[in-house]
Queue: 2 jobs
Job 1
Amino acid sequence: MRRAVPDNGKIAKDAKESVQECVSEFISFVTSEASDKCMKEKRKTISGEDLIWSLGTLGFEEYVEALKHYLKLYREVSIKPPSVFSQSCLLLHSKVC
Amino acid sequence: MRFDTPSFLTKACEIFVQELSFRAWMCANSHQRKIILDSDIIEVVASMESYSFLNHALHTDRHKHHFDPLLMPAKKLHHKFKNKPSTSHLIPSSQHLKPQPIPEFGGYFPCVSISSPLPPTDGCHIPLTLPCLPAEEAYPLLPTTITHAPIVTSMGFIMNNSSSNIATLGVTTPLQLPTIADPNILNTCCIGTIASTSSYCVGYGNPSSASSQDGGAEIHYPHIPTSLQFPPASPVVNNSVSTSISIIELNHIQSEVAHIGNAVHLHSDANAAYAIDPEATINASDDQHQHGNLVAEVIPTINVSGDNKNINWDEVDMADDSLLINFWENVMMNEDPATSLATASTVDLVVFPHDMLKHKGFHHEVLDDIDSTAAHAI
């Protein structure tokens, strides 16, 4: 959370708690949507693709692009050294923010 | 495993948090603040259509976090009021024994039906004091009458004031009394509190001043009609001098003023029953107008006599003095036959026997407390 805020900014405790609640709700929301999709397709495992689909469905299209890149890099990380991975993540963050 | 889905979801959450934080930061910046408050979060959630699913989560969270303090003793609540940052402190008002509509605050909660955040406290402090507490001093003869103290519900406070109200009404009188949601208590509290000032309020044509409040606190005490004006009472000392009883109708504000006296007991007990700290201070902002409707429901009956004579406020026609006189005579009948109401210059004590209070189920320990306080006051 602090990464998104400039150094001179502060975050109230209430704000952090609110964001925590929001994130919890976000996870539930996205996961339930992905779960519904899997149930419809009679699958028992939620994959990353399902999550990407649900994110797109729920109005987080901008996340989709960034996460696709992340997914791609994540797969490459299993092969490439971790330093590349972290750099790629930072790149993704900057794109998203 | 080809892909670690949980870490993928983690990354998605991270992006979500960053976006939310960034937008909240922009929001805080727009308010010339460097601190992100939860109000900024709420503003962001409200402004983004894709975040609409968070509205419910935030409101639920608010209720969870803000109702709990209301269960705390009133003194703790008092401290919370003092210590919390102004803009982030909300006083939910929805929890009460009897449901009451609470006005929304600003534009932050478009979907909120009940939360009523406390306006930013820019410094208008409304001390809540029981009438019995400043017993050592005579009630000042103030031109202002109705003090829009926070309306204390069974669970907490409802800030019900507006800047204009505060300014006009003079918040700081010791007679400020939290209006309690419970109608039974409400009436008696009004009776208890406003007595001395209200008489003056009447004298000063208070209705105009109170009614000038732009949609300010609206205290609905059903059907305590019009202005029964008794001659202004001499300064009322607790448990000593009889008071005048006046009924003031102020726009939407109707309050029945009676003698404080032992009514304080009733009030205090009511307060105690609802864990209300009479000394609690509530910060009110001058910037905010809250169109609060004090409990629309007023106790239909109030047991003010020892023989369970119910007085239905709705039915009591206070249109003229004679009816009020009759009412009080009935009230006083079993308590003090010697007292008579509404003479031109004398005011009678309204004695609320402890029995009656006990009948109403007040906490005895609080009753003792109040008694001791009142005893000191005498």
Job 2
Amino acid sequence: MGAGALTCLMFVVIALNAIAAAAGLALFAVAIWVAVDGYKLYPISGVSGKDDIFAAAWIAIFTGFAFFLTCIYGIFAALKRSRGFMMVYLIIMFIIFLFECASAITAATNRDYLVGNSNLVKKQMLQYFADSSTQGKQITQTWNRVMEQVECCGADGPSDWIQYNSTFKQMFGSTYIWPLSCCKRLSTFEVEDKEGCMVGKASTIFPKGCFQHIESVLSRYTWAVSWYGFSVLMLVFFTLVIAMIYYMQLE
Amino acid sequence: MLAVLFVLGMLCPLNFAEIEIRLLDPKIDGVLTSKFPNSFLLSLPNCSLYGDSSAELLYTELPSNENKTESFIVPSCPVSLPGFLLKNLKNGTTYNMQYKIAGVNDTSANLTTTTTNVIDYQQIDSGLPARSGAMVVITVILSVAMVALLIGLIISFLFSG
């Protein structure tokens, strides 16, 4: 390959590495956002033992930052026109690529387990809401917050509390049919009509289910890690193919 | 003729004296449902006729024929609650219910309904429902990419120099 063409290829490698470094840093930032869990829904996946969306986010934090550092090294290696440096770059990039693939695939698969349909979330709610164990307290707190903020009741609706047996029914079933978090509240946080809500007056209770919100949040986290990770990986794949061609052209 | 009219006139108050008893209807009365596993939501006796009087709800559990009574005060108009919640029933059991106003001896017809059954939450199947298209696409494309990169690395290391 002529010297001019090799220089051109070198610039392409440097440009792609610069873009990949920026993309890796953005992946690092997005994965931190997922790990921080601003919607505070971690207990729903943690208690069920299927918290790999968050595990994948942690892996993506490390691989995103590693992509950033290694791509900067790659710019340096390409400028040096050194075979040894390029070989090290290629091997390290390949290893990081493997880990990031694992992260993207894990997040996508785990999302299907958790929120493919409302069964797992509903069963967990019926089992752990109002339970006095540590997991019970976490689930109770999470569900109370979701029901009050999103203005919903139960997984698919208030009928969940009627159709199924639950820990809540065993403990409070003689007084309450559903938790008071299902009731509409005034701006002072008092229940608007406690007697009406306890009886099921439609204007005092939230009729929709919370599953849609939970599903959309966990999907948002998953798409952040898996789809954005996937797009970074496609860019890195393309960069590595060009880098391998460049490596083969070096003497 | 006059005698017939007198007889009819005497029968009329008895018709008006029958209290209405029914399960509340979600579409008409603005409630979520009226049949629960352990309760019923029944219509209250008319507040303008019986407001502030003490009433009794007599209910019998079939098939054991156990008789029970709930006493309450009929709320006066305007009524805030949509109905009367009869609690502490057994699930999947049939009950006979009847209102009776104390003192005036007005009664309602008999209402026979069954409480709903509960499903145990352990019966809910929380296994993997289905694999989404996104997951399949990401897995397949990334697996192919990993293999392609590995082959590319091997080729570039073997066929260099």
